[in-house]
Amino acid sequence: MRLLAIGDNVVDFYQDQGIIYPGGNALNVAVLAKRYGLTHSSYMGILGSDASAAHVKHVLEQEQIDTTRIRQAFGPNGEAVVSLNEEGDRIFVRSNKGGVQALLGINLNADDEAYIASHDLLHTSVYSRLEHHLPELSQKIPVSFDFSTRRDSAYLEKVCPYLTYAFFSGSDLSKEQCLELSETALEYGTKVVGVTRGSQGALFFDQQRAYEQSVIPTEVIDTLGAGDSFIAMFLTQYHQHQRMEEALLRAAEAAAETCKVYGAFGYGVPKDI
User: Fold this and answer.
1) What digits encode the pLDDT tens for the residues 146-189?
2) In what order do the strands lie in the sheet with 10-14?
3) β-strand 2-6 against 71-72: which pairing, if any?
4) pTM of the predicted model, to two decimals?
5) What's the CATH architecture for 2-270?
């Protein structure tokens, strides 16, 4: 299976440590899916020209991620400032709003479209600003999309018709609200909808039924990246084998492992101030 993640990349600056870690939903999914067994994982996005961007590029090379269609522009890479509470839950303090990628946006050309079509699955997110490309992309390749906490009805109507997989963060939602949200996404045409709920586990829905997955007990150091780990493992397992319960269990196990380390997948270095 060949997965391509398009969109957001950042460094997460842990201000209490003075350390930056590579991150961003699209980049995390590309790296983690490769770690979880994919033979080929690719990342397409825009890097800046600073030390943070150089670190992200180095990490992608170390993880053997295909960066054939990556862009680089003069300016700051995306950065989020992070703090952790006593339970290891991440608190986002501030960010530079995505750096150069947010300023420029990803424009796809004919070569990009041929490259995308050479993959089996595309993953992107609400932070990637790729919504206007979804109608044509979904005709070429199944699309996975992380909405994070974006749930307004106008946005769902715009995006959901073009998705095979939709993921939402819903730790603030009741089961009834998760069901209502998922029914809306399914009615718009999405094939599989997942709502991750932190310590409350995850609820998933397809056209036939609902599924519930509990969290795997673990020592929690840092929850940042746990949701992306869940997504990466779920896509790796389910898109290939179509076994929902097994994919959810493996995804929960992956998320639990991520909670044991700082950052989404490590590679912390001192921030160059």
Assistant:
1) 999 999 999 999 999 999 999 999 999 999 999 999 999 999 99
2) 90-95, 79-84, 10-14, 19-23, 269-270
3) unpaired
4) 0.96
5) 3-Layer(aba) Sandwich (3.40)
